Amino acid sequence: MMQPVKILGGGxxxxxxxxxxxxxxxxxxxxxxxxxCGKSTGDFQLMENWIFEEDALAALKKFNITGNFYxxxxxxxxxxxxSLKRCLKKSSEPLMYxxxxxxxxxxxxxxxxxxxxxxxxPITFKSTLTVNDATIVAxxxxxxxxxxTGISFPFxxxxxxxxxxxxxxxxxxxxxxxxxxxxxxxxxxxxxxxxDHELRLDRSIKRFEEIFxxxxxxxxxxxxxxxxxxxxxxxxxxxxxxxxxAGGFQxxxxxxxxxxxxxxxxxxxxxxxxxxxxxxxxxxxxxxPIEVSHINRYLFEKLSNEGYEKLVNMLGSQNxxxxxxxxxxxxxxxxKKIYHHSPSYLLHPILFWRKLSPxxxxxxxxxxxxxxx
Length: 373
What we know:
Elements: E1 5-8, H1 12-23, E2 28-32, E3 43-48, H2 56-62, E4 71-74, E5 76-80, E6 86-90, E7 96-101, H3 108-118, E8 123-125, E9 136-137, E10 146-154, E11 160-164, E12 175-180, E13 183-191, H4 197-212, E14 221-227, E15 236-237, E16 240-242, H5 258-274, H6 278-300, H7 304-316, H8 320-326, H9 331-338, H10 347-351, H11 353-371
Parallel strand pairs: 1-2, 1-9, 2-8, 5-11, 9-16
Antiparallel strand pairs: 3-7, 4-7, 5-6, 10-13, 10-14, 11-12, 12-13, 15-16
Helix pairs in contact: 1-3, 1-5, 5-6
């Protein structure tokens, strides 16, 4: 009799793999080192909806993910420059989805755990299973190179998603705040080797207090988590299938990882079911956007505050030539272009702004030239 597939890690990727293996009639067991599956913090997380062609919720159905979990579509994103210039961009289709994370009712983690239990898949909590004894590895981050520090707090403010670019707060990355159902969450991301993460978090809190003209007097939770923006060319190592963060499946530019977790778990399961090459399978489905995101990460890290100012100015420009360069005024269309062009059509001209400034000045002057004729 074939031994059950042993999955080490009860997060998004591991549980997705378990569900699909069981549906194919393959015995599977989940080993989780905690007392519950998924994240330990009860917060909101954004699931991106622009990297892949199909809608994220439609993709979850294809991956056999069911259950009653909190989900809220989101259609806008506000960008703020180092000088606090603000630009609100909107999308006609869902740009992202708010999901609850953690062990509480309504969280995607809790819904997946229930779906696994309902499918009669055994889960061993506080498991001591080692990587060497696992078939699918779904734990840990592959060589983290960034650190996220943040707070959650009660915030009586309309639901929002805001990104602030400022190297004084977040070096080579960004600071962001989300507000959902009166809960605010502020996160600052910096290279992991920095020694001033807490100081930069405190500066970010003060900056957002200035932006919102409020005082964050009650902090419900402080947290920190590593982030890996490296990926493995091969996720099939020593006969094991690496999925989610363990396989380095993460967006290289902005750090989004939920859809990569679902997709890598699904493709690992399908590779076992079909007895085919896992690397060929996931590379065919996901390698191109990952590679483009890492090229854009390389360009983004060279921008600095001067480049961030120009980036926000460009996003907020109503000049027809600039709007055409962006691919329109719809934010989802803009970011889809960023993720399907290599090197980035948007970041590249900003990076080499001085060389292109005469052309940009000419483009800005076109409406006046045409109207004066």
